[in-house]
Amino acid sequence: MKVQTRLSIYSSSVFGLIFLILSAFIYLSYGKYARDTVYDALKKTSEITAFFFLEEDELNKEEFAQVRRQFDRLVTNYNYQVYTETDQIAFGTDRLHVSHPLLERIRNEESLNFSEPDFFCHGIYYEDNQGNFVVITRESKEIITNQMRMLITLLIGSFLGGMIVIILLNRWLASVAYRPFRRAIREVNDLSTQNLDVQIELPTEKDELYDLIATFNTQLARIAEMVAIQKNFARYVSHEFKTPLAAMLGNLEVLTIKQRSPEEYERMTHKLIDEIYQLENILNTLSIISDLKKDNDVAARIRIDELLWEIIARVGKKYPSVPVDMNLEIDSNDEEKLWISLNRTQLAMALTNIIENAAKYSAGKPVLLRLDLIDDQLSLEIRDHGIGIPQDQLKSVCKPLYRAGNTGSIQGSGIGLSIALRILERLNLRFEIESHEGTGTRVTILF
Known about the structure:
The chain is α+β, with helices and mostly antiparallel strands and about 450 residues long. The protein has three domains: about 5-160, 2-Layer Sandwich (Beta-Lactamase), CATH 3.30.450; about 210-290, Orthogonal Bundle (Helix Hairpins); about 295-445, 2-Layer Sandwich (Heat Shock Protein 90), CATH 3.30.565.10. It is built from ten helices and twelve strands.
C-alpha cells in the first residue's frame, strides 16, 4: 500500500473516530437535556395541579381564575393524578395506577422523578388542610423518542456524508502533498549509469523531503565518483600493467632466441627484477588507495624541516632539471614549533607526492616550499609556476585516478595526489589547493 493511500486512510479513520465520539457525546447530552427539561416541566405542572385542585377553598374568585388559566395553559395536555393518603385517586385519570411502594417513596422524598414504559413522571408530596396528597404528572415519551430518532438520523447522515467528503479531500490533499515525492521518484527512475552526474531537483521548502533529496544527491555524487574511479581504474591498470608486462615478455622472447652468455642472462635477470618491482609498486599503490587505514605505523615526534630536506633531495634526483627551494620563515625563538607528532611514513608519502606533482607539472620552473607561522600555527606552502589546473576540474583532481585535461603527454596515473590528500585527511591536517591554468598551483597545509 502506498504511503499516500495509507495516510489518507489513517486521517479518514481518525476523523471518523473523532466524529463518532462527538456524536455519542451530542446524543447523550441532548437526551439528558431533553429528559431534564421534561422533568422540570412536570415538576411545575405537578405544583400547579396540586394548587388548582387543593387550594380552591382558600382562594378568592380572581386568584382562582388566574390559577385556572395557568392550569388550562400548562396542564391540559398532561396526564395527572392526585392520590389520597389511602392511595385512592381523588382527581385525574384512573387508567394508570402507581404502586403503593412508589407512592410511599414519593411521600418520603417529597419530590421524585421516575419513569414508566411510555411516560416520564414526576411526583410531589403535598400537605393541605384537606389532608396529605401525592400529585403525579406524566409526559409521553413519544415526543422525546421521535426527537432522539431524528437526531440519530441526522448524526448518521452527517457521519456518512462527512466521511465521503473527508476521504475525497484527504485523497486530494495527499495527492498535492506527495506531488514532490512523485516528481523525485520519476527523476530517480530516469537515472542510469550514463547520467549519474545529474542531481535530483530540490524542493523549495526545507522540509523532510528536502533533507531526503539532499542526502540522496550526496550519495549519488559519491556513486558517480566511484563509477568514474572504476572506469579510470580499468584504464589505469590496463595501461600501467601493460608496459612492464610487455617489456618482460619481449625480454624473455629475445632471451630464448639463442644461447646467451652468463653475463647476458644476469643482465636480463636484473631487468626482469626491475620490471617485477615496478609491478609490485603499482600493486602497493593500489592497496594503499583502497584501504589506507591498514597502515599500522604509529605517530612519532619529527622535525618537519628535516623531513622536507630529505624529500627535496629525493625529488631532486628524480627531476634534476627542476629547482626545489625551501624558505624557512620561522624565528629561532619559535624553532620548537617545527617539531610535530604524526605518522612519519604517511606524512612523508603525502608530502613526497605533492612535491613530486609540483615538480612534474612545473614546466621546468622552480618549485618553492615555504614554512611559516600563521596565527601561531605551523603552515607549509608548496607552490609551482607550471601549467596549473583548470578551475572547472580543480575539485576533481582530488579523486583517485583522475587527471586534469591539460596534462597532455606528461606521464602520470592520477593516484599520487589522491593518496596524499587521503593521508592528510587521516592525519587531521587541513589543506587548501589553489590553482589557475597557466600560472601554477599552490597547496597550503596547516599543522
